[in-house]
Design goal:
The protein is α+β, with helices and mostly antiparallel strands and 1280 residues long. Helix content is 36%, strand content 21%. Helix 19 crosses helix 20. The radius of gyration is 37 Å and the shape is globular. The termini are far apart. Pfam families: C2, NPHP3_N, WD40.
Amino acid sequence: MYSLLIQSIDGFSWKPSFVLQKEPNLYVAIELDGTRTHQTHTINRAAVPKWNDVFTLSPDRLSSRLSLHLYHKTSVPFNLKNDSCLATVDIDIGTLSERCGTLGTSEKTTTLELIKKDTKVKSAGTLSVRLAAISIVQAGRLEIVGAQTDIESIGFSSGAGRVMEAADTIVKVQSKGGDLASSLDVLISKIDIIVRVGDKLTKIHPYANLAWKVLMSMYKAVKQQQQTDEKIVELVRTMVTTYSFVEDIESLPKKIKGLEDTCLAIVKQTVECAIFIREYTGKGFGDRLVAQALSDGVHQQIDDLSAALNALKQSFDCRLAIHAAFVSAKIFEHVQILVDSNTLRALKPVDMNAFHRALCLAGTRVDILNFIQEWLTMPSDSGNILWLYGVAGSGKSTISTTVSEYFRDLQRLGAFLFFTRTDRAASSPSAVIRTIAYQLASSNPLIRAAISKAINQDPKVTTATSRTQFEKLLLGPLNAAQIHLNGPVIVILDALDECGDPESRRDLVSLLANEFYSLPPMFRFLITSRPDSDIAGDFKHRSRIIKMHLEISITTDIRLYIRSRMDDIRKRHELEDGWPGEDVICTLTEYSDGLFIWASTATKFVDGHRPNQKLESLMMRNARLGFNLDQLFEVALRGSGSWDDPDFALDAQAVLAAIVLGEVSMTAEMIDALFNLQKDRASKHTLNALGCVVQWSPGKVARTLHASFGDYLTDPQRSAGQPWHLDVVTHSYALTLGCFRILKNELRFNICRLKDSYVTNSDVPNLSALADTYISSQLSYACQFWASHLTKTNHEQSIQEELLQFLRNQFLMWLEVVSIQLSRFQSHRKTREKVESWYLFDPQHVLGLVLRSIPDGASSELRNLTQDCLSFIRVFGHLILEAAPHIYLSALAMTPEDSLVRREYLQHFEVIMITAGGSHYWEDYVLHHRPFTRVYSLALSPDGSYIVSGSSNCTLCIWDAETLEPLGESHHHHDSWVSSVAFSPDGSCIVSGSGDCTLCMWDAETLEPLGEPLCGHNNSVLSVAFSPDGTRILSGSRDCTLRIWDAKTLQPLGEPLCGHDYGVLTAAFSPDSSHIVSGSEKNTLCIWDANTGQLLGKRCCDQEGVITSVAFSPNGSCIVSGSSDSTVCIWDAETQQLLGKLHGHEDGVSSVAFSPDGNHIVSGSWDCTLCIWDVETRQPLGGLLRGHKDRVLSVAFSLDGTHIVSGSSDGTLHIWDMEAQSNGYYSSLFFRLSLICINRKRITKSTDTASAAWKILLFVFFASFFGPRNVQIWCLVAGS
């Protein structure tokens, strides 16, 4: 902290005016980083003003900007103008420190040249100032002196201030002026004593330090409020009285050592009282001015706070170290809201258990902890995020845990999330927003009510994009609740660099950097991480994020830590007094090179069998080689066991591989099962031997002490050649074999012994208890992660054989466990914690990864069976997740006759047999839906969740992209067929073009029209598109023109683009929004400048007929066009040269699209098929995709490129799978059935030719039947 002396001005002069003929009334206003903090008193009519005012400053950094403004205070009666700024000077704190000698042994006054800001000033002159470094105690005394002076000068009152007692207030102003100031003076001086003797009471000191700082903030606020309620004065007096024990601390600190907990409780309560008073006086996070009498609720709260302090004081006076209830100053209105706990369960938060996390040793990292705790507690205009970054092992996580426990004690901790690479499932970026929301809701009933309301309004928000989750789960609810909240709410995110990988956390980091500042100011964030490039790139240049580089620790802290740990070792092993000696401690401190992880690992290594010998080997090794972290790991591992013994080396490698390469943390029993370790080689023995580098205790999961240890073991540059080096491929092979062994030995039909096969999982009584009984931890792990380990192997022949046997024999039983575990996750919080890592599990995604990982040389039998299993999951996925028994009863029964899954498994189970009409093959597509009208156009939303279709009946419809269920009714706003539709880049709007010559803008959520139709074309609008930057809309028309529209105002921009001689059928923007490509009815391709509308190139194509569709490649280098002559052409976007012509369709090509990665093109044709093309080879991938019964009119890729959507004249939408390897062996639309089992009572028979959707056994089946409106229900009970 600093003191700033504003002394005087020399050389100032100004021009008197007609009204102001005398000298000005001058004062200096002080700003720090743009925020006004102080101002001097005003000197009236002085030619050479001298203030000699001293202020305290607390800059965040030496680069903080100090601005000093010279003002004239107007004295003209009724002048409505503000005071005039006459001159100013800016300088950073570091530069001023150097000029004043602040960092040296002597301090001096310096002069700063003022710059004129007002024409009345002749000469601004120079301002004399002095900046001096001061202690926190000196700063407090300066504040108290200044406050007392101010109070005396303004007659400050601590009167009651009630309106009805206004007559008495004047008397109280005169008689009680200064009561509050004097009370605060006494209180701060006594807390000052605690700060000074804090080294002897290390448990109390941090809280006393914060109490002092908060009170100082409150003190300045209180002095500005002229009528503070009498109850506040009494509360301060109670605080002063309670601190009477301080005299004992100062004289005989040891007297109260036994009552340290009581003293700690008093200091904590003082912090809470200080925060309450600060909020009451309107200078806290709420920035409210309380100018009216307090409500009865707040009166009662003050009484409760006073009572709690009095109880603690009485406890201390009686020398009784009793537990006193902590009374919080959080103000909650009486809100009669019953929040259904199921609402918050929908957030699916990750469980964060900090039980094993270490805290800072008392007396270490004091300056850092004080700064962080003060910054998080005090209001600030500079931002609400503090980013603490530093190298691995510097102690970031320990600091964050210590800070979290500090604010947990104060009941100010809103959320604490910590991430680790050893638990990838719990460290997924996709769960962060939901987990923050859940923890905040759990910490405060008002926040809980607001977040629950948001979930009820939009139940699907928990699966929305990260930005939508932020806006609806945090921004909206917290803004709604902030008026009822007082003081800081602390949120801590530790080890952000271990939250997923740079790609998966990209959106999260962007939100933290660019959006979290918009949350209410009382929500304060501490984020720790290594300075990884993706995080640093977003954080370092954000002015709203305070950056704090955690340097490697100072020698004093490391020495204190090592000394404490060695003393513990000495006592535990009954070594001689003084062991190991101060010289050894100093040497180890030097070896640590400032890294706490080095000190922690070294002392754990010594704390084993024969500590003296281990210490000696550590000292000798370091003396010879130096003292870096890798060498310490080598010493620690070398001393853990005999690595020359093949059995020990094999077991230790297995244990380390399980810990480092495992997808979640495992118990010793899980490790034994994975690596088939028998009792005499059980992993618990190895875990005990590795105790200096591994954290484990019986019944608990095993973890590395620090992420850097796993990095060391797997990095060939650091540990190659050592017996403990972990080759990822080799050990992934072992983990894969272990998973398959567990699956083979433990999977069973009806594994949970369910008694009724006709109920859904959610209706099974005690399903969770049954699962705990029959599904072991190792089986749950193997079911979830076998594929993850398999894809990291080289697919050795033995792995391929194991995979084939698994798919032949355990595939359906694996799905049974998947169904049960996912159902458990959906149930309730207590159950969810046991299956937390299942949240992101998707069996379809898993099989897709496996299929793609199979090498080209693998057997066709393996590839075909894997593909068949994947098709089984795609078609019956919803049924599998709803009811485990119906994997066998219904899904297997409905499987096509030539399915490999059917051939392998049907012989082992009794199921309903399809006697006629069943399908012979799996369809290439996953789903279809019939909207019963001709689908002319469709588009996928940017997040891939929704599809919009435009139809021949003049309507638009929104569909769920996963289930293809319509979301609401079709909407009619056009008077003719809807020819083209497009989503805006942010997904909030839809634009449509129609045969009625107009465009319409729609709200994507409600599908309500936004404004009137856009009129400007003279013929049918055949193509519409949004620019990628979302600012413009493009339309192409049969009137031979294109138009560009402002997406916000819906007004045309400039004149129509004229250049085509015939109708424009298709148009598209380039990815950077700078160019437009369009195609016409007479095979003409045009390129336009999107900003000026200038025609840049025109080409009459080699294609015959009309150009029906065009699209840019994602990188903008190529253009693809489809033509009625059945060809697809690829063009160079810059030169318009033809790069290739693709032949494969038998009729005209109606629609083309690039895949998101630019490697593939899909084309839809009037021959009722689709074709997927390889851009590089210009060849089709497989055969034509057949399924539609009429012309394909529109195609589009999904956002991730794994699926294709198509719309047809036959009135159906189809979703096709890019991963399907079948070559078009389509037979019919799903199932042609004559007999299907509904439940144990009914059978349905139908011969309807229309495609009908039936919800059967909780699963939507699509069936094509024969005969008009002929549905029969057969009752098995009655036999009729």
